[in-house]
Fold this sequence. Notes:
By secondary structure, the chain is an alpha/beta fold. It has helices spanning 7-11, 40-49, 63-73, 85-97, 114-121, 164-176, 197-203, 239-249, 259-270, 272-295, 317-326, 350-365; strands at residues 27-28, 80-83, 105-108, 126-129, 149-152, 181-184, 215-220, 233-236, 299-300, 307-311, 329-330, 332-333, 343-346. It has two domains: 7-37 and 273-365, Aspartate Aminotransferase, domain 1 (Alpha-Beta Complex), CATH 3.90.1150; 40-271, Aspartate Aminotransferase, domain 2 (3-Layer(aba) Sandwich).
Amino acid sequence: MSIYWNEKTKRLAPYVPGEQPKDRKFIKLNTNENPYPPSPLVIEAIKKAASETLRLYPDPLCTELREAAAARYGLKTGQVFASNSSDEILAFAFAAFFEARGNPIFFPDITYSFYPVYAGLWEIPYEIKPLREDFSIECSAYQGKSGGIVLANPNAPTSIALSIDELKMIVEAAEWNKRVMIVDEAYIAFASTKGSCSTQATKSMLPLIGEFPNLLVTRSLSKDASLAGLRVGFAFGNEELIEGLCRIRDSFNSYTLGSLALAGATAAIKDASYYDQINSRVIATRSRVSQELEELGFRVLPSQANFLFASPPAKNGHEFYLALRERGILVRHFNKPRIEAFLRISIGTDDEMDVFLEACREITNEK
């Protein structure tokens, strides 16, 4: 530790992202990236925006992008916030809506590991709620008095989703306490067996924003729009919540999205049919791989995301992770209580998953 760090910096336990190797070629199934390229319209829009106008500041309000998102999801522009990734938006939301000296916020013991990092950054007390033995969320645990609630749906890394009725029970309790509930929908596009926008809408909390003034829904273009390299995210909620996010953002940096990101993200939002098509392929591959892993003796949790959470039969999770890595395949292993036996496996192309499955067969059959 540096003598120049303040006490808060010394106490922080930062988030550790998935490995991004540069030393050799891997099949990357470790960071939940979409295996298919962005829409051609996105590339075209970025090329068009790469002009002499880059000398000018971008629109700090992200107006065109927010209008496009509002039109796609049937909301008002004032109910949409756009910024540099849903991770950044979540950090803004923790700062805007949760109290450092208030009641603890609630989130699961096994969930997106950035949540306790944000709580530590803003010195917000939190209480983790254990998942059930099957790794599903116990809804009744979130209905008591809290400082707010944060749930990923589908949850990560377990990949399991709650129903709308279950989420409504929780957000109603949070509204009774006049606390904000954040629903992190980074993987919602994969929470359907069909992949169509209309089917996805029945899985999302977006239609309930008008009903619940305390509901904030966050989303990302990293997974479902194949734009992890562009770093664009959204929050959806009533105008008061959006204004709160704007106040936090504008206390850091009003220009969170550059012109190229704005152009590419707007094109992606407008090309829903392309992304429905490729994400349907991801869902179909997920189903096939899940079945084949179960036939090999893996325990596979019921996934509604673009990844699988599975426990191998022949070796412990870390050993299996290392064996796959030796074969040029990266997956994610979390050395944490209750899930150290599991691997998180991003869904790649069919060819990539065939190589992965063959490696699993080899490792499983080793004595």
